[in-house]
Amino acid sequence: MLGSRRWGGSIAAWLAERCGQTGHVLVTDIDPRFLVESASLDHPSLEIQRHDIGTDPLPAQPFDVIHARLVLSHVPAREVALERMVTTLKPGGWLIVEDFDATLIDPGYPTSDAQALALYRNMLAAQGRLMTARSGELALTWGRSLYRRLRALGLVNLGMEGYVAVWQGKSTGARLVGANFEQIREEAAGAGLITNEEIAQVLTLLDDPDFAFSAPVMFTAWGRRP
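Given the sequence above, the corresponding C-alpha cells read:
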C-alpha cells in the first residue's frame, strides 16, 4: 500500500494497522521529518521515504492500494503524478484521491460586520492567487475533476463524493486556516495582495466564535485498475 503524508500521517497509520503481518505500507513525503518524529507511525509494517511525487518516479513494486489526500492540488505536475499512480497499481488495485476544490467555498456566514467579511474574502483571494502562481491554474479546481480523470485513465468501479464542513472561529478548523494564512503572510503582503494589518485582522476574526465559514469542498474519488 502507498499512502500520502497529509493530515499528520493518520491514514498511513490506519493502513498499517490493517495490512496484516505480511503487508507493507510505504509513506512518502517531500519532507518526511514530521513523519519520522511521529509515534503513531512507529509500526513494523510501515516505511517512510523522502519522495517528490511530482518529479520522482514511483517505486518499482506494484501496490494493492494507493491513497493521496490533499497532495496533488499542490503539485504542478499533478496530471503526470496521477498517471504514474495508476500504472503502479496491481491489476485489481484501488486508487483513492482526495482533494479540495477551493472555488466551492462560502467566505463567511451571516455577520453584521461587512468589513470583516470583505477582509476574509480578500485573504482567500490572496491565498488563491499565490496557490495558482505556485501550482498552476488547475490547483483551485482539481478536486472536482477527479472522477473524469480517473475514468480517462481507464479505472473502473468509479465513485466520487463531496464533503463540506462549517467551522466556527476558535475551532480546530479555524486554527488550521489561520496557520495556513500565517504561512503565506510574508509572501502575500510582499506581493501587495493584502497588507500585514489586514492579515492580522483576519486572524483575529478566526479567533471569534461568532464568526463561521465553510471549508472548501473535499472531494474523494476512487477507482480500480482492471
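The first strand starts at residue 2 and ends at 4. Try to locate this feature in the C-alpha cell string yourself.
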